């Protein structure tokens, strides 16, 4: 780190010039990247996806209907089958559309209990994005054809419910969200620095974000990159780059306040705080390995794109930031209202109090975390239920009318059985119809290849761990019959994700924890500190999932705060994404705090002094950094999509919980309790890690002068 800082200071104009070019190129890349991103939700090798691919080849559809047309007549619809057939035929003329319902089958289970409404299922080709390009044509065709035959019509479906919600709440653009987060960060930075120096981390963040977009643009040339990456780069990149800058700039000011020359202070800041930044950035990148090794293209691309955020932020902070501080740091640090010559009195007193009442602090922290973790055992994976997508609008009213008529929400998530030959269809229909929880079964017209889709409509949505049990029941009933090719639909897709992601996730989690443990063992020169850090991080993430389960899945507060009722399940891709980012981002604060505690212990030989001085020097920075990230996630939570709200609030609350309850209470309490064992690293472990060993040694009494060199030498000899 010293060599890096020295090189940057000596060649600061070249470094600044390089990043200026990257900044300009990044502006162009940021506008080009969105058009290069993909909406790939494929799951190669999984039954649901492979069956959807077969149906796609045979019919041009995936087996997941996109629309549910509903027909109504004051005198009942039984006498209007011919009129409904005319409308369905008009819809079937649209490219790639398949329709099945009362008109095609005559089955009265496609009718409401009072017979005043009928529904059809309309299957369309796979859309490239969230919006189906046929949506407008379907609505126009339905309205025109229904008017000709004199029927009342309406339309519902997951996409229509989502659009109703988006119409109710128009969220800001990615750029607007980023600017909102940046404004919140600026307020915090002005409080921390009380000078024009507050603008420097924002400049660093701008360079880091645009440079990351430049690399992402290059990444799109060699692999698919998910559309979600643009949100992650803009908002998480903003928070991470500012947090890293905050740590280095604060240490530079501290060294300057102690009388060091400007370039000397820059080198020292990079050697100490910069080392923590490097460890933090690598830790965040390692946590995203969880996404790269999962055999799901969308999550894998998020992992590749997400890894670039901490790595590029670290690179910019360790090169451009010291160059700028060396060039103009003292001139920008004006007016110097806040001084850094001594640790924060408030945070030092807090650390002293935690040390004094460490047993109480540890018990309170553990109890609160335990309460937060408790709901996690009810966590459901799947897709967002219809109830949380919208509570008003035409699609919502249509679905409500169907429910009032005795038709459950299962019309939104049918299961499609792929059968090899029309001759095998009757047996499949009979077997599926006998399954409890199935409302109606109807075959599509045979495809030109002979493959035939048999549509199974459940009573209720198959969207989470519990409700997808019906999918297994249908599979058990039909899989042994001749011609069975597989199941497609929402339920099978949920099961695909469970198998592809969560069946192997414990192994991935173990590998990430081990790699992180080894990295932190080298950073802290300790066995116990990294072990505690990994365990606390896992518990902290579990607490966030518990809170998300309580708030979003069970709906305790989501309606009051966001106007969204309980989701019933967490979108299948959210838990692994939340874990990957939250595990790494939370570890940032652990590294910032423990790295300073280790430094203070090496200087004083006292665990108590290490805790007090470590809290005094980093408490304000960690809290400020957490607030900056929180503002970024709060801006992201303003998006209209429920899934993005869940992601943003989980990350935001997780950061606050980690920075307050865990890092400000549990960590200092546990370090105080462990005493001299915190700092132990035997020689046989230190050698392969290429660091100095740290043998056990007696504690220096807290009253000893912190800077007494003779006392320090005496402790080292005794140790």
From TrEMBL:
InterPro entries xrefs: MMPL_dom, Mycobact_MmpL, SSD
Disordered: annotated segments: 696-719
Bias (Basic and acidic residues): 709-719
Pfam families the record matches: MMPL
Keywords recorded for this protein, A-Z: Cell membrane, Membrane, Transmembrane, Transmembrane helix
Domain SSD per the UniProt entry, residue ranges: 193-327
PANTHER family: MEMBRANE PROTEIN MJ1562-RELATED, MEMBRANE PROTEIN YDFJ
Protein name: RND superfamily putative drug exporter
Lineage, broadest ranks: Bacteria, Bacillati, Actinomycetota, Actinomycetes, Kineosporiales
